[in-house]
Design a protein that fits this description.
Largest sheet: 6 strands, mixed
CATH architecture of the domain at 10-53 and 139-230: 2-Layer Sandwich
Order of helices and strands: HEEHEEHEEEHEEHEEEHEHHEEEEE
Radius of gyration: 20 Å
Strand content: 25-35%
Number of helices: 8
Strand order of the largest sheet: 10-11-12-9-3-13
Helix content: 10-25%
CATH class of the domain at 10-53 and 139-230: Alpha Beta
Distance between the termini: 42 Å
């Protein structure tokens, strides 16, 4: 049996009494208190997450931009100016290998990939490598954390002794803390303002403790999942996979047709096909619609939760095109019970 990877914060999580689980081959907190309390902390104040399972690569060299542009279906033009952008890497069939964040700072490209796909994307990059492109695995000696919520910017500015309000949404900056550079990006996965920080392993326990001391709530995977569902954000393996192409998702805008990328020809051919569309659903009963629950009219649930604030049942799903418009009615099979649901605006809040 393969042992789980510990993060540089695992011992601190245990001291705080976190309930941990296996995720992307890492031992990570599922919660410290309750999913509801942590979800509400992020919505109302500030919460922080150990996301060391996410893959982070530093890509340098004279051909680094050309290399990444070949892999990315989104244009990298906006990413040149200290800005993270959302994109997808596709396979030759136009299906989604992974959804990624990438941006350029001081002529160095940072690429963030899903933890479960890190090995796959590393191999994909090596298979398509260009001359004078170097790829460094940042996870070897650095840890990624996220600080999210309406109070995140002020609290984090205080701890880092830096005015982070100067960093624009999706902006990137290197912030000096304890003599070490911290890659600070105004990004996240909760639908709230906040930052993701790439910190040297030897400094991350001290930073985590300093954030705790300011009153920021430690949060686990359960709240991270309920927050991203409420914000309508996709999870690879559920809303995205190698059987799903970008035009099926709510992120068809990510495809920019004015440059060449792997999978472009296949994806272009798929434009004329009929395919299911990603939507948000609000269910008529307080029952959780879980992944792979069947929709009677055609389609499937990909994620679902009860909103902690209201106990409303919401879900992300794929439905047939005729049922993808706002207000459309569908029926979800939940444990042999038929539950009516309406297609609603996403994000849900």
């Amino acid at each position: 049996m393969t042992s789980l990877n510990k993060t540089a914060l695992t011992s601190l999580h245990h001291k705080l009494g976190a309930k941990c689980t296996s995720f992307a081959n890492h031992e990570l907190p599922i919660w410290f208190s309750t999913m509801k309390d942590e979800h509400l902390a992020v919505r109302n104040d500030a919460g922080m997450f150990d996301i060391a399972h996410m893959g982070v690569f530093l890509i340098t060299g004279s051909n680094s931009e050309s290399f990444l542009q070949k892999l990315s279906c989104n244009s990298l033009i906006k990413a040149r100016s200290d800005t993270m952008i959302y994109s997808m890497f596709l396979n030759e069939s136009g299906m989604i290998l992974d959804d990624v964040m990438l941006g350029c700072l001081d002529n160095s490209w940072y690429l963030v990939v899903n933890g479960a796909n890190k090995g796959k994307i590393r191999t994909w990059m090596q298979d398509h490598i260009m001359s004078d492109v170097m790829i460094r695995d940042c996870n070897i000696d650095q840890t990624l954390i996220a600080v999210q919520g309406p109070d995140a910017v002020n609290n984090l500015s205080q701890v880092l002794d830096s005015d982070l309000t100067k960093i624009k949404r999706f902006g990137m900056s290197l912030v000096s803390w304890q003599g070490s550079d911290v890659l600070t990006t105004r990004t996240g996965y909760t639908g709230e303002d906040g930052f993701e920080l790439l910190v040297a392993n030897e400094h991350i326990p001290q930073l985590w403790q300093a954030l705790l001391d300011t009153g920021i709530t430690p949060c686990g995977l359960a709240a991270r999942d309920s927050l991203r569902i409420e914000a309508g954000l996709p999870l690879y393996g559920q809303e995205l996979s190698e059987t799903i192409h970008p035009l099926m998702t709510r992120y068809a805008w990510v495809v920019k047709w004015d440059h060449d990328f792997i999978g472009k020809a296949s994806l272009h051919a798929l434009k004329t096909n009929s395919f299911q569309k990603a939507v948000g659903l609000e269910l008529s009963e307080k029952l959780i619609a879980r992944p792979n629950y069947v929709i009677q009219e055609g389609g499937v649930i990909t994620s679902g939760t009860l909103v902690p604030q209201t106990q409303t049942s919401i879900a992300l799903a794929f439905v047939e095109p005729d049922f993808s418009e706002l207000g459309s009615q569908v029926h979800v099979m939940i444990r042999n019970k038929v539950v009516a649901a309406s297609v609603v605006q996403v994000p849900f809040r």
